[in-house]
C-alpha cells in the first residue's frame, strides 16, 4: 500500500518538481535564485539541524545517517509559504505552494543503507518594477522578471563500520534552466525594448559525512557531526535575445538572437563554492535531543558572469542552527500524543550577499510535530516556520514569511530475510 502510494506520487510529481518555480522572493533576482536547503520537514522543524539519524527517517543533509536504517523509507515534502513584502513605500502579500523533496532510502545489508531522490537547489521567480525620470522629464520604466532554477538528483550511501560511528557520501547530478527578462519603456513611446536571457546548466558534485555518537552516561549520548559538500562547477549554455515589443498588446517585433560566441559568453562556468557544517548535541536516544550546528561557505568565490548584476557582491556566508526534539513516551502502547515527536529550532543565516551595500540576512523560528500513523513506524510530519529575509533599507524589500510544511515518511520492509520458526 505504502509503496504504491509513494511511487504514484513520484510519477505524478516528478515533472512538476522539475519545472516548478519554487519561490516568489524578490531576492531570487540575484545570481541563480535563492538557495534551497534540502531538509526534510523533520529536520527543518529543528532549525535545519541534521546531526541526528535513526532507523526509520531520511536525513537529506547527512548521508552518514543511512548506515542506521532498518526499514525502507519513502518520503515526500510539500510547503505552503505566505509572504508580506515591505519596502520604504509600499507593501504587498503573496503566496506559493511547492514540492520540497522526493526521496527513497533503504538498508541493503547489515549497517549499510542507500538513498536516492530529487530536491531543488535554487529557485527563481520574481517580477520587479523600477521607474526614474530622464533629463527630459520622461519616465523610464523597467520591468524585470525571472523563473526557473536548479534541481538535483542524488544517490547516497551510508555505513556504520564500528559502534557509534557512521560515514557516508552522496553524489549529486545538478541540472536546470534559468530565464531572465527585462522590458524597458519610455512614457512618450508606444514601443519598449526587451532583453531576454536563458542559461541551461548542469554539473556534478559530492558530499561526505561522518557522525560519532558515543554514550557518555547510561542514558546520555553525545552527537557529533561533520558534513562537507564539494564546490560545484556548472557548465552553462547561454542564449540572449533583444528586440522591441508593443506596450499596447505585448506583441514582439524584430526580436533577434545576439552572437554570444563573439563575446565569449555562449558557454561559461558558474562556480558555487563548497559548504562545510559542524554539529554538536546531547540527548537521550528516542527521548530528547538538544543540538547546534554551524555552516560556512565562501560565497566570495561565487561567479556567474552571464547572469551577474552590478549592485550585488558576495562574501563569506554562514548559518547557525539551534534545535532539538522531545518524545514524551516512545513505548508502542503509549497514548497517541505521548508517542508523537515534538520538534523546535531557530536558524540565523548570513547569506553572504550584499545588495546596495546591505548585508542580506535570514532569521527563522521553527516548531513541528511528528504524528505516528496507525500501528506502523510511518509518520505524518508537520512544521511551521516564521521568519524574515532581507531589509527595507537602501531601496530594498524585506520579506516576512510564514511557512507550513507537511511531509509523509512511509516505512516498509525490503532486503530483510524472512525467518521461519
Instruction: Tell me the Rg in angstroms.
Output: 24 Å
Task: Tally the beta strands.
Answer: 19
Count every helix, treating DSSP H or I runs of 4 or more residues as helices. 3
Task: Return the string of H and E elements.
Answer: HEHEEEEEEEEEEEEEEHEEEE
CATH top-level class: Mainly Beta
Helix content: under 10%
Low-pLDDT windows of residues = 14-20
Mean pLDDT comes to 90
How many domains? The number is: 1
State the fourth-level CATH superfamily: Outer membrane protein transport protein (OMPP1/FadL/TodX)
**Morphology call:** elongated
Architecture overview:
This protein has 3 helices and 19 strands. It is mainly β. It has one domain: Beta Barrel (Porin), CATH 2.40.160.60. Strands 2-3-4-5-6-7-8-12-13-15-16-17-18-19 form a 14-stranded antiparallel beta barrel. Strand 6 and strand 7 form a beta hairpin. The protein is elongated and about 80 Å long.
Keywords:
14-stranded antiparallel beta barrel, Porin, mainly beta, 3 helices, 421 residues, 19 strands
In short:
The protein is mainly beta. The chain contains three helices and 19 strands.
Question: How would you summarize the topology of this molecule?
Answer:
Blueprint: H1 2-19, E1 34-35, H2 41-44, E2 72-86, E3 91-109, E4 112-133, E5 139-162, E6 165-186, E7 191-212, E8 220-229, E9 232-246, E10 252-257, E11 267-272, E12 275-284, E13 288-298, E14 312-314, E15 316-326, H3 336-339, E16 341-355, E17 358-372, E18 379-390, E19 398-412
Antiparallel strand pairs: 1-4, 2-3, 2-19, 3-4, 4-5, 5-6, 6-7, 7-8, 7-9, 8-12, 9-10, 9-11, 12-13, 13-15, 14-16, 15-16, 16-17, 17-18, 18-19
Amino acid at each position: 500500500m505504502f509503496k504504491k502510494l509513494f511511487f504514484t506520487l513520484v510519477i505524478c510529481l516528478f515533472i512538476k518538481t522539475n519545472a516548478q518555480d519554487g519561490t516568489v522572493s524578490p531576492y531570487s533576482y540575484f545570481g541563480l535564485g535563492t538557495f534551497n536547503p534540502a531538509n526534510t520537514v523533520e529536520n527543518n522543524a529543528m532549525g535545519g539541524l541534521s546531526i541526528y539519524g535513526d532507523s526509520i527517517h531520511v536525513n537529506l543533509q547527512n548521508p552518514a545517517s543511512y548506515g542506521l536504517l532498518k526499514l525502507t523509507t519513502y518520503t515526500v515534502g510539500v510547503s505552503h509559504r505566505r509572504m508580506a513584502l515591505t519596502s520604504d513605500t509600499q507593501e504587498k502579500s503573496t503566496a506559493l505552494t511547492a514540492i520540497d523533496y522526493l526521496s527513497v532510502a533503504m538498508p541493503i545489508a547489515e549497517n549499510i543503507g542507500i538513498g536516492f531522490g530529487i530536491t531543488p537547489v535554487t529557485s527563481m521567480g520574481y517580477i520587479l518594477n523600477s521607474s526614474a525620470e530622464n533629463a527630459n522629464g520622461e519616465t523610464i520604466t523597467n520591468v524585470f522578471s525571472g523563473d526557473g532554477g536548479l534541481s538535483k538528483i542524488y544517490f547516497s550511501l551510508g555505513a556504520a563500520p564500528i559502534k557509534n560511528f557512521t560515514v557516508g557520501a552522496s553524489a549529486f547530478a545538478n541540472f536546470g534552466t534559468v530565464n531572465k527578462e527585462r522590458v524597458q519603456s519610455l512614457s512618450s513611446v508606444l514601443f519598449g525594448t526587451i532583453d531576454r536571457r536563458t542559461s541551461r546548466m548542469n554539473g556534478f558534485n559530492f558530499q561526505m559525512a561522518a557522525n560519532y555518537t558515543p554514550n557518555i552516561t547510561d542514558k546520555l549520548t553525545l552527537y557529533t557531526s561533520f558534513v562537507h559538500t564539494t564546490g560545484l562547477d556548472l557548465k552553462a549554455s547561454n542564449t540572449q535575445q533583444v528586440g522591441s515589443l508593443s506596450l499596447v498588446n505585448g506583441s514582439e517585433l524584430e526580436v533577434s538572437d545576439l552572437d554570444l560566441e563573439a563575446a565569449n559568453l555562449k558557454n561559461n562556468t558558474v562556480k558555487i563554492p563548497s559548504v562545510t557544517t559542524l554539529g554538536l548535541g546531547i540527548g537521550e536516544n528516542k527521548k530528547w535531543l538538544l543540538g547546534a550546528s554551524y555552516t560556512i561557505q565562501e560565497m566570495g568565490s561565487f561567479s556567474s558572469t552571464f547572469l551577474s548584476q552590478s549592485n550585488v557582491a558576495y562574501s563569506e556566508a554562514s548559518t547557525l542552527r539551534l534545535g532539538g526534539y522531545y518524545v514524551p513516551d516512545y513505548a508502542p502502547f503509549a497514548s497517541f500524543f505521548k508517542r508523537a515527536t515534538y520538534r523546535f529550532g531557530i536558524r540565523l543565516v548570513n547569506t553572504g550577499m550584499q545588495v546596495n551595500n546591505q548585508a542580506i540576512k535570514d532569521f527563522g523560528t521553527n516548531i513541528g510535530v511528528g504524528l505516528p500513523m496507525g500501528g506502523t513506524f510511518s509518520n505524518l510530519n508537520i512544521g511551521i516556520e516564521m521568519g524574515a529575509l532581507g531589509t527595507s533599507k537602501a531601496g530594498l524589500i524585506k520579506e516576512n514569511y510564514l511557512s507550513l510544511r507537511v511531509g509523509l515518511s512511509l516505512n516498509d520492509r525490503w532486503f530483510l530475510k524472512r525467518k521461519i520458526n
